[in-house]
Amino acid sequence: MRKLIYISQRVDIAPDYGERRDALDQRWAKFLLKAGYIAIPMCNCPEMLEDLLKFQPPGGILLSGGNSPVAYGGTASERDDTDVLLIEYALKNKIPLLGCCRGMQSIILHFEGTLFEVENHVSVRHKLQAESKREVNSYHKLAVHRLPESFIETSCALDGVTESVQHIRLPIAGIMWHPEREDIFDKNDIKLIQRLFG
Question: Which CATH number goes with the domain that contains 24?
Answer without folding.
Answer: 3.40.50.880
